[in-house]
Specification:
Helix content of chain A: 25-40%
Radius of gyration of chain A: 23 Å
Number of domains of chain A: 2
CATH class of the largest domain in chain A: Alpha Beta
Strand order of the largest sheet of chain A: 3-2-1-4-5
Order of helices and strands of chain A: EHEHEHHEHHEHEHEHEHEHHEEHEE
Strand content of chain A: 15-25%
Distance between the termini of chain A: 31 Å
Oligomer: homodimer
Number of strands of chain A: 13
Largest sheet of chain A: 5 strands, mixed
């Protein structure tokens, strides 16, 4: 059975998701007896629904290969969750219609836990509608919150960005602290899980170095303890570096970023955790401070991606193809850490039913007793993921990217009305 | 005349200020007939006043050389401006006392325009108090706002960080824009001058690429025009990337960052320009947006420093020594751009009187007519400054820094009471 493949990117993108795409497309070319062409969905699953399919066979090897150093999602991503088969049968019928029209027998969906859910639902088309498909979800998320897999492609690079940035900014604050800035706050991503915040601990080349306080979404914020700790650190060290997860909540379970600021019109404003904490430090402790919010910078920083992460990203792309052509359905290639002392890993298939919609939070064994730091187990887990510098090529002082043609396949069906 | 030298870092630090320090210390070793030892002031000029002098001769060559890839200010910086001789004679008398006690005949002060002022005042000690000193200010500032010099060491690297970050984040936003984020705002430093904001234009590998809107402190903010432009860009491109200088002001000359947010207690909060603009975009245009504030990250990002900038930083350190041992006083080694088509440069001495306290803003010829972009003259000026990648060594996934001894010279004088 020779079929075309559909590949799409979904949810928040990462600095290495295109490396997965490149590896998948190049691996597919090695299996011409099974896979004809790889069609990439424009903007995720929407590309399938709208019949907007990019023909990757029109691209040169060099163009596809260059994706390994291009951040963002080259084919466009989406935040769009398929309803259940019962709730919106129309969408599934449309997918089958598009798959049939373009002879698609392989479905690859590259995303997080919402996307694993979409892939899981699509995988059931075989059963529900009798359409044969090999459906593979491929892991990707800077949040590192997917179940089963040891880590998620995208996370290691974001972690390396955070560790490096905290390391560098801490040297800056240290030099300014005598007469100026005493407190520096960096807000990192992680709405529900503190993996990214935890990775800032890798900035330490020595125990007790910065960061001095890490705030996790898993630990509810206690203002008194926080301020006491800041005061203490500034007294002992001369300055204090804080890394706060965007998802830090107060004891009532409300995001700190929503609990405080009002704009000129009196509207509540999603002000960010960093400016909130900075306000507290100013008002309650009268300490000069600076704050930064890295937002998209941390997840798109391909210039500081980790080689380990990049290798993971490519490997899951390659294995997705292998699983699909071997007839697997409803699985995800996950990263398995070998039990040796030295970090090594392999890829294995895992059932999507165990991954879809499950959120893996930072285990409590990774958080220190006072709630402001990580444990040595966390460091042991995190450290291998940021190893190696996969610097991209630069041209004219900025990272170099090659232009792709992104030719769309001719439509065969009526327009999708949604 | 063989004398010791005093070197100190002042004002906001940069990712390459330690490269200047390293070059200066290593160059000094080549002139042993003139310079005995280099004493570094702990926390800038305060180190001289407090007699806290770090003996750099105790460090190995390798330790000093490693400073070339260490961000922040290794000896500590300060925000401290000497009063005039007439206002606070005591401070000048103390400096002379410390210089005499430690046989200091060369004074090197590495900073911005405030620091040039301090150096200028110290240079007059010879005249006013009859103490012979060769006083050299050395340029450093990410703000790029020093007069006379073509550019300021530290700026090129910050500019490269900004251009790279905007390039990367724009690819991220582009992939998300169909179903999610339409507007991304990055706030960069620059309280009074728009050099850093302008450098974001280097993110474009093609005209009309992101960033689509740049806001400068030199141009007063017009809300109506801004929102109109955002709407137009989103309509045409599908998304809009905005880079805003922290110093953007409204038509009344008030910082936008101060004009809007109130915390829970009703206090006005320095909320940052980015969240302010994000609030506007949400409320007035109802467009989903993300924002980032790079703050200290941009000026300490040694991992993405420009080779050109690093070369400048070293060259001004070397020339400072040459000028001092040739008997010059009250000058600064400045970068002069040669008038060839291909970028090249040299170092020349300039009078401190022309530099102290002068602020070089972005020339109007560098700002586009609509006030939202730079001109081709700006690009021509900026581009050479971000060329080359001076990646540091990494260890354990983060930049490697070597430990210095930082041994203080034994005090000979009574404690300074200020």
């Amino acid at each position: 059975m020779r079929k075309n493949a559909f590949y799409a990117q979904s949810g928040g993108v990462t600095s290495v998701i295109n490396a997965t795409a490149a590896a998948l497309i190049l691996e597919s070319k090695k299996h011409k007896s099974k896979i004809k062409k790889v069609y990439a969905g424009k903007n995720g699953i929407l590309g399938a629904l709208k019949e907007e399919l990019i023909d990757t066979s029109k691209e040169s090897f060099s163009a596809i290969n260059s994706l390994k150093s291009r951040p963002g999602g080259i084919f466009g991503s989406c935040r769009f969750k398929l309803k259940s088969f019962e709730e919106n049968k129309k969408e599934y019928l449309r997918l089958v219609e598009v798959f049939k029209a373009h002879d698609i027998g392989y479905f690859f969906y590259n995303g997080g836990n919402d996307s694993a859910d979409t892939a899981f639902k699509v995988s059931q088309i075989s059963k529900k509608l009798g359409y044969p498909i090999n459906c593979i979800a491929i892991p990707k998320t800077v949040d590192n919150d997917l179940a089963v897999t040891d880590s998620c492609p995208g996370f290691g690079s974001a972690a390396k960005y955070i560790a490096t940035s905290v390391f560098e900014a801490s040297l800056d604050v240290a030099s300014m602290s005598e007469t100026s800035t005493k407190v520096f706050i960096l807000e990192v991503m992680g709405r529900h899980a503190g993996w990214m915040a935890a990775s800032s601990a890798l900035a330490r080349s020595k125990k007790n170095n910065a960061p001095h306080i890490i705030l996790f979404p898993e630990i509810s914020f206690n203002q008194t303890n926080f301020l006491k700790k800041v005061k203490e650190v500034v007294k002992n060290k001369g300055y204090c570096v804080i890394v706060a997860s965007e998802g830090v909540k107060n004891s009532k379970g409300k995001f700190l970023s929503e609990s405080n600021t009002r704009d000129a019109f009196g509207h509540s404003q999603l002000g960010g955790v960093a400016p909130y904490l900075a306000g507290l430090v100013s008002q309650k402790l009268n300490l000069k401070n600076h704050w930064a919010v890295s937002d998209y910078l941390q997840r798109s920083a391909r210039h500081i991606s980790s080689t380990t992460d990049l290798n993971h990203a490519e490997a899951v792309g390659i294995h997705a193809v292998k699983y699909a052509i071997n007839g697997m359905n409803s699985v995800m290639p996950v990263i398995v850490r070998n039990k040796n002392k030295k970090y090594s890993w392999k890829i294995e298939p895992a059932q999507l039913s165990k991954i879809a919609n499950v959120e893996k939070k930072l285990p409590y064994s990774f958080i220190s007793k006072n709630g402001f730091d990580v444990t040595s187990s966390a460091i042991k887990y995190l450290k291998p993921l940021i190893q190696g510098e996969a610097f991209p090529k630069f041209k004219n002082g900025i990272p170099y990217t090659q232009k792709l043609k992104l030719v769309e396949v001719k439509k065969k069906l009526p327009t999708w009305k949604g």
